[in-house]
Write a structure and sequence with these properties.
The chain is α/β, with parallel strands linked by helices. The protein contains eight helices and eight strands; from the N terminus they run H-H-E-E-H-E-H-E-H-E-H-E-H-E-H-E. It has a single domain, classed as Leucine-rich repeat, LRR (right-handed beta-alpha superhelix), CATH 3.80.10.10. Helices cover about 35% and strands about 20% of the residues. An eight-stranded mixed β-sheet has the order 1-2-3-4-5-6-7-8. The protein starts with a helix and ends with a strand.
Length: about 220
């Protein structure tokens, strides 16, 4: 018996298509995208609420910034760890992030935040975050206020701040910076205030820096 598959050609499969007029096709595509976008927004809002609930349950304080919209997040205490950054990552509209006396938060956790375009104020006081995170912070170009007192920052680390052109206040108190390190500080055109309290800088070094940063009030 002959093999029918060998003796007869394969039949071309029938193809079906629905042709819509171009305006209708575009309208249908837009409707699908809008529906999908609405679903994504709903998921993002749900993740935001869940993340906020987790942080508040562990003792985070959520408030409103003094100026503008958005939220302020305060983390303080030994209970906070790198694991809490996954909740911070899911929050939208953070305007101010203030972390103080949280030694169990490190560079590894901070890295999960990625690049943020919503945070304008970042304060890291007595945390486990080191200068290794400065390249990441240097990409947060919406920052207007940065406080990293006590961080073991050196002159070579300061170059990572060069893109923070919106920065107005910079606190480098209690760091090991010396006069030679100050030469690496980039010229930030909008910087109004630079605090160098309890550093290794001298009056002469600060005087030279004031000439370099005309328009910036440097306190020591």
């Amino acid at each position: 018996m002959a093999n029918p598959s060998a003796d007869t050609p394969h039949a071309e499969p029938r193809r079906f298509s629905i042709r819509l007029p171009r305006p209708a096709w575009i309208g249908a595509a837009v409707a699908v995208l809008i529906a999908a976008g609405g679903g994504f927004v709903a998921i993002a809002e749900q993740r935001h609420r869940i993340a906020l609930a987790h942080l508040v349950a562990d003792g985070a304080v959520v408030g409103s910034p003094r100026y503008g919209s958005g939220i302020t997040i305060y983390l303080a205490g030994q209970q906070f760890t790198d694991g809490h950054f996954r909740h911070l990552r899911d929050l939208r509209g953070i305007r101010e992030l203030r972390i103080m006396d949280v030694p169990r938060i490190t560079d590894a956790g901070f890295a999960t935040l990625g690049r943020r375009t919503d945070i304008e104020l970042l304060s890291l006081i007595r945390t486990g975050v080191s200068p290794e995170s400065l390249p990441q912070i240097g990409r947060w170009t919406d920052l207007t206020w940065l406080a990293i007192p006590g961080m073991r920052v050196q002159g070579a680390d300061l170059i990572h701040l060069k893109n923070l052109t919106n920065l107005k206040l910079l606190h480098l108190d209690e760091t090991p910076l010396a006069d030679a390190d100050l030469r690496a500080l980039p010229k930030l055109s909008n910087l109004l205030w630079l605090s160098l309290k309890d550093t290794q800088t001298t009056d002469a070094g600060v005087a030279d820096l004031r000439k370099q940063l005309a328009g910036t009030r440097v306190v020591r």
